[in-house]
Write a structure and sequence with these properties.
Elements: H1 2-27, E1 66-72, E2 75-80, E3 92-95, E4 99-106, E5 115-117, E6 123-128, E7 138-144, E8 151-153, E9 162-168
Parallel strand pairs: 1-4, 3-9
Antiparallel strand pairs: 1-2, 4-7, 5-6, 5-8, 8-9
Length: about 170
């Protein structure tokens, strides 16, 4: 009888360890991708490429004043300019002191907003839009590019719906 109990305890301990490892993996909020990025597929189905394929040459962004994005739970998807078309969570390159507009459209009828954050994760100035949850609804954020802006983020899905902002000298 003790052999049966030992086997059952070993089986339960193994199952518990497997469940614990699975849960720990789900709770990992690391933003680092897998070691082999060559086979990365976009999280958002409508995206065709990951952010690593976006254009970040400041000269290519010199004439850009307006940015259009689509908002999905899985991430932002670039629409305009062509530099970011169908890019998931694209890096935005902005010129310090220049005025910009970012217009985003709700693509999945889930709550979204867009806020510009600094390196401490705080909203820069009052650079944030209202919350929209209606499919197809849009919001536009007008702002002046400041060097402290480092990311754009949806404050409702901050772990997966964010992108980098590179503010360059004018």
């Amino acid at each position: 009888m003790s052999s049966s109990r030992s086997t059952r305890r070993a089986l339960l301990a193994g199952a518990a360890a497997t469940v614990a490892a699975g849960v720990a993996g789900c709770l990992d909020r690391s933003t680092e991708g897998p070691a082999d990025d060559e086979d990365d597929e976009p999280i958002v189905e409508v995206a065709e490429a990951t952010a690593s394929e976006g254009e970040t040459d400041p000269e290519a962004w010199a004439d850009v004043e307006e940015v259009r994005l689509e908002a999905y739970v899985g991430g932002w998807v670039g629409v305009e300019p062509d530099l970011i078309d169908r890019i998931e969570n694209p890096t935005l390159v902005l010129v310090e002191g220049r005025e910009y507009e970012i217009t985003w459209e709700n693509g999945d009828a889930v709550k979204h907003n867009l806020a510009l954050h600094d390196g401490d994760g705080e909203v820069v100035g009052e650079y944030a839009t209202g919350v929209v949850e209606d499919l197809g609804a849009t919001e536009t954020l007008e702002f002046v590019a400041r060097p402290e802006i480092e990311t754009y983020i949806c404050e409702h899905q901050p772990a997966i719906q964010y992108g980098a902002v590179d503010v360059v000298d004018g």
